[in-house]
Design a protein that fits this description.
Shape of chain C: elongated
Order of helices and strands of chain C: HHHHHHHHHEEHHH
CATH superfamily of one domain in chain C: NADH-ubiquinone/plastoquinone oxidoreductase chain 6, subunit NuoJ
Largest sheet of chain B: none
Largest sheet of chain C: 2 strands, antiparallel
CATH class of one domain in chain C: Mainly Alpha
Number of helices of chain C: 12
Number of strands of chain B: 0
Radius of gyration of chain B: 25 Å
CATH architecture of one domain in chain C: Up-down Bundle
Shape of chain B: flat
Number of helices of chain B: 3
Helix content of chain C: 55-70%
CATH topology of chain B: Methane Monooxygenase Hydroxylase, Chain G, domain 1
Distance between the termini of chain B: 53 Å
Structural class of chain B: mainly alpha
Structural class of chain C: mainly alpha
Strand order of the largest sheet of chain C: 1-2
CATH architecture of chain B: Up-down Bundle
Number of strands of chain C: 2
Chains: A mainly alpha (435), B mainly alpha (123), C mainly alpha (267)
Helix content of chain B: 55-70%
Largest interface: A-B, 90 and 70 residues
Oligomer: heterotrimer
Number of domains of chain B: 1
CATH superfamily of chain B: NADH:ubiquinone/plastoquinone oxidoreductase, chain 3
Distance between the termini of chain C: 94 Å
């Protein structure tokens, strides 16, 4: 009786695999993530190089494909230095604590539907939980410890400040991320990843819940410490951030954790908003696209798409200032997320109680929200214009050697017009005879 | 391995594979890496100048305030998630919607207060 | 009657996996909790507390309470512990316990609270044993759905009060921690103007270690006549008494200074 009741509604088809299949899936997850990391590092270097009119690494292996592998091995063979001031046990624990959760989150990500492996019918997913998405959030919050402890145990100022910043950043964006999930749960009626994918048979939630999707994508970049939100390792201010004192394999583990986290949040975005392993629209017309092993291809393609967006952002956008970053998190993302989820809930309640078409309301609401966000940009732009418009009044004479030192013109003072042979004062254009 | 306890055992398995991965990596690293102790390299990194004093720096209290807000929203999310999951089920709907509006209303008032006071501005 | 018996049997039936989990994690949680109380350093206490909470979370999972288990990690290990960690960073990582009591009647209140909590635990556990609804019945619609049923139907008032309580506590923390700015913020521009208008030394100060043997920030620069330039060392270090005098720095290397001070060998 016990077993029957427990196995009932939540975990259909999971936990019934033979042991070799389970172990195989766990190992495949690791191999997949490590390969994705190696590939993403290479892809990042090649794509960013292309965006900057360079070539990028192309020496090791065909097309430079083995570059990140070579770099990884080289990094792991470096001397391992533990600073004198470090707290040794915690210093060693921190990179492990940061890497392990990154891998664990992938246990509940569905790669595909039910397939046959050596005669066994099984889901292409290690396991599913009734609280799978919440589990991913929980695992992510354990991963933050790795960063905090790294900063702490290094016994150095830069890592400490870097880890503080990084932690405040992660927790701020985790709030927005959690709120963006609520819309998905409202529609899917479940927190299990396989059921969320199953619920996206007709519409992907990226279309139906576009604001949720936008908030998730922004906060996932913040969650992974990636440009333009890579303030934790702002090298001009904090050297390397929380991993300044790390070297050799321990540094490599932090590096690995960052890229695995990128893959994990991308996979979660795919699962929650882009229909998981489901084939995209023109392909989904073909009946076989959502069967057998094909979905693994669609899933990987979608994850790679997100990874490309990460790289694209890095190649395009400059880093935000910390106050701007916190402002975006607390004053834009969170209020918008709350407002949007209340709106979705209202529409959904009206839908179930009075039975009218909610989709149109949501789509129009989404458009309205997008227009509103656009208007705030315009408003900001106009406000900035009017702020910069007024030139300071000239009130005083400029004394270039005030106090015996050469000083620039102060506010209210004006630089006198100087004439140099061959040019006109104040002109910005260069003349032919004076290069 | 049945029921959802089995599901969590599988998560534990991933953790075990992870531990194996880390152990192998650390052992290989220990065997293969160069070790040349001595010199100033065990000193705390300070951009090339000799470190002075300890590594600890006083952190600002505003980090604490933001963490407190995070705690609130974490608890908030914990209520929101089951609410969202059962929302469409018969017998919930409008009633729970109003309940959640009240719940979020309290939080929103607090957040607005903090906003007006300038707590949310990082300065 | 027979159904009650079945439920009872099911409730007392412990699987092997569950037993192993319990006997590994139970002692671990207790030991970590005791270690948390015993350890002198705040850092160690915090880490051990995190370990206790994680063990508890896994125990909840083993008891078929997945939602509670994950919530334990998200809220306690994630959020509340993070709050503790930030407090530790605020007061200093290596700070040890101070045994001075600042609140009067703290011990009496603590004892009363502990007794009250113990009584609550006894009654709650007793209730669970006597009425024994059983997990299977509670989880019959699914763990999350069952909880939602209770929170949003039966315990609605408690749920709403939680939100009020949370936000009250947060506003309290903000009032204590936030300094309201009554004067306009001094910008970089204002500072620059101040520096030049003030008629003091407007150029950058000399950097420490110039013409000296070491380049650490606590070593003052030497002027051409061999005297130390006091302006080259940060005010903070000077106030702390961390500034190195000239004869002392002559023979020390960085690694010696990081180690406990030895006898000067006079070379």
């Amino acid at each position: 009786m016990n077993a029957v009741l427990l196995a009932s509604p939540e975990v259909r088809g999971f936990g019934a695999d033979p042991w070799w299949l389970v172990l195989g899936k766990a190992v495949v997850i690791f191999v997949f993530l490590v390969l994705m990391t190696l590939f993403t590092i290479l892809a990042e270097r090649r794509v960013v190089a292309r965006m900057q009119h360079r070539i990028g690494p192309n020496r090791v292996g065909p097309f430079g494909l083995l570059q990140s592998l070579a770099d990884g091995i080289k990094l792991a063979l470096k001397e391992d230095i533990i600073p004198k001031a470090a707290h040794k046990a915690v210093f060693v624990l921190a990179p492990i604590l940061s890497t392990a959760p990154a891998f664990m989150a992938f246990a509940v990500i569905p790669f595909g539907p039910e397939v046959s492996v050596f005669g066994e019918r099984t889901h292409l997913q290690l396991t599913d939980l009734p609280v799978a998405v919440l589990y991913i959030l929980a695992v992510a919050s354990v991963g933050i410890y790795g960063i905090v402890l790294a900063g702490w145990s290094s016994g150095s100022t830069y890592p400490l400040l870097g880890s503080l910043r990084s932690t405040a950043q992660l927790i701020s964006y985790e709030v927005a991320m959690g709120l963006s999930f609520v819309g998905v749960f409202l529609y899917a009626g479940s927190m299990s990843t396989s059921e969320i994918v199953a619920a996206q048979g007709d519409y992907w939630y990226a279309v139906l819940l576009f604001p949720s999707f936008a908030i998730y994508v922004i906060s996932m970049v913040g969650e992974t410490n990636r440009a333009p939100f890579d303030l934790a390792e702002a090298e001009g201010e904090l050297v390397g951030g929380f991993h300044t004192e790390y070297s050799s394999l321990k540094f490599a583990l932090f590096f690995l954790a960052e890229y695995v986290n990128m893959v994990t949040v991308s996979a979660l975005a795919t699962t929650l908003f882009l229909g998981g392993w489901r084939a995209p629209w023109p392909l989904s017309l073909w009946e076989g696209a959502n069967q057998d092993w094909w979905p693994v291809l669609w899933f990987t393609a979608k994850v790679l798409l997100f990874l490309f967006v990460f790289i694209w952002l890095r190649g395009t956008l400059p880093r935000l200032r910390y106050d701007q970053f916190m402002k975006l998190g607390w004053k834009v993302l969170i209020p918008v997320a709350i407002g949007w989820l209340l709106m979705v809930a209202t529409v959904r309640a009206l839908n179930t109680e009075y039975d009218f078409d909610a989709r149109q309301v949501l789509i129009y609401g989404g458009i309205a929200a997008a227009v509103l966000i656009g208007l705030t940009f315009v408003w900001d732009f106009v406000a900035a214009r009017s702020r910069n418009a007024e030139p300071p009044e000239v009130t005083a004479e400029w004394d270039p050697m005030a106090g015996g030192h050469p000083v620039p013109p102060l506010p209210g003072q004006q630089r006198p017009q100087l004439t140099v042979a061959g040019t006109t004062a104040g002109s910005t254009t260069q003349t032919e005879d004076h290069p | 391995m049945d029921g959802f306890y089995g599901g969590y055992a599988l998560v534990g398995l991933v953790l075990l594979v992870g531990v194996a991965f880390v152990t192998v990596a650390f052992t290989a690293n220990r065997l293969l890496r160069v070790t040349v102790p001595g010199g100033d390299k065990a000193l705390t990194y300070e951009c090339g100048v000799d470190p002075v004093g300890e590594g600890w720096a006083q952190s600002h209290v505003r980090y604490y305030v933001f963490t407190y807000l995070y705690v609130i929203f974490a608890v908030d999310a914990i209520y929101l998630f089951p609410w969202a999951t059962v929302f469409a089920a018969p017998g919930f709907g409008m009633t729970t919607l109003v309940e959640m509006f009240v719940f979020i209303g309290f939080l929103a008032v607090g957040l607005l207060y903090a906003w007006r006071k300038g707590v949310l501005t990082w300065q | 009657m027979s159904s009650t018996a079945t439920v009872l049997a099911a409730a007392t039936d412990t699987g092997t996996g569950e037993a192993v989990t319990f006997w590994v994690l139970g002692p671990l949680a207790v030991l970590a909790a005791l270690g948390m109380l015993a350890s002198k350093k705040a850092v160690h206490s915090a880490l051990l507390l995190a370990l206790t909470m994680l063990s508890l979370a896994v125990l909840y999972l083993a008891q078929d309470a997945p939602f509670l288990g994950v919530v334990q990690v998200v809220v306690y290990t994630g959020a509340v512990m993070m709050l503790f960690l930030f407090v530790l960073m605020l007061v200093g990582v290596d700070s040890a316990d101070s045994l001075v009591e600042t609140l009067r009647g703290q011990r009496v209140a603590a004892v009363l609270g502990a007794v009250g909590f113990g009584a609550l635990l006894v009654f709650a556990l007793g209730d669970a044993v006597v009425t024994n609804e059983g997990l299977d019945q509670a989880n019959s619609e699914g763990n999350v759905e069952g909880l939602a049923n209770l929170i949003f139907a039966r315990y609605v008032f408690a749920f709403e009060v939680t939100s009020a309580l949370l936000i009250t506590a947060a506003i309290g923390a903000m009032v204590l921690a936030h300094r309201e700015r009554h004067l306009p913020k001094i910008t970089q521009r204002d500072l620059s103007v101040q520096r030049f208008r003030g008629g003091q030394y407007p150029a950058p100060l000399p950097s420490p270690g110039v013409y000296a043997r070491h380049n650490a920030v606590d070593t003052p620069a030497l002027l051409p006549d061999g005297t130390p330039a006091d302006a080259s060392v940060s005010r903070v270090l000077a106030a702390r008494g961390d500034v190195r005098s000239i004869p002392e720095q002559a023979s020390t290397t960085a690694i010696e200074r990081a180690a406990p001070r030895r006898e000067d060998d006079g070379s």
